Amino acid sequence: METYTTDDALTAMGFGKFHALVLAYAGMGLVAEAMEVMLLSFLGPLVREEWNISAQDESLLSSVVFAGMLIGACTWGFVSDRYGRRTVLLFSTLLISGLGFLSALSPNYLCLVALRFFVGIGAGGGHVFSSWFLEFVPAENRGTWMVSFFLFWTIGTVLEASLAWVVLSALNWRWLMALTALPCFLLLPFFGLTPESPRYLCARNRISDATLVLERIANANQAGLPLGVLTYHRETKADHTTHTSEDEHLIAVREKDCTVMDTVTSKSGGIAALRKLLSRNLRRSTLLLWFVYFAASFAYYGLVLLTSQLSDANRICNSGLIFEVQQKDANLYKDTFITSLAGSIQ
Cβ(273)–Cβ(252) under 8 Å? Predict the structure, then answer.
């Protein structure tokens, strides 16, 4: 009997209307995460001015968000492998939107810190949005669309800088925080329309559910599925060495390992994947990529947060005239807007 994999089906259907809708939903999730991170550039100085907190407490307000993102990034991956991508999309969206809005109503500093920590945990699930989207994209186009997808991050940073420029000139930081949570609220009404990843469904041995999702994609793209029966891992003949499905190179658990009597848990699968990445053959590439990503993140977030700190320091060094303070605020929004816009050039 003829069989086909998810890569075969996605390649046959191509990138179409269905993928554009998935891109828009996942992209909005990345926009929301970027806005929450960019918010840190404006929040600290404004909170310190209103509540007279120390410089250390101001820094803690940003640190707890990144601490939450670290915990979320380590947790949501395991949750998505165990309970599905859609589960993480939902809870991540609820945390960012709900607690982000409640942060605007914080009565004191400690309450604000606690709420921002849980917002950071929700924002740590941003990588699941990208994984969910890329699992719908044909293999040969995946690299191109991965780069294109992260343009939504730049859109989010530019949007937040523009929002701060408009809102803080007339209102206060509470309004900015509430409006920053708005993109995540916009995702909730459309959550019921989001499909589960067919790749995840196959990995969990839910072949019939995965077939239904692929048929839905085919109908939306007005394309046809390959002949045969869907399978997660197809055994290839020895003479067919010129074309190998991407599934052959994935570290994830194969469907042949996913039986009713022997199901690999997400925890053991994650540990096995980490060991594979740190194996002798992949250790050098893994460590190099980790260092490059760390260095890029360190420089990016440093520039984003340093912009507001430099502006705040210049304000302190100059006179206390109201006009000059307003001028420094305007310069901060302009500098942050330009810094964010520069990300689109990459």
Answer: yes
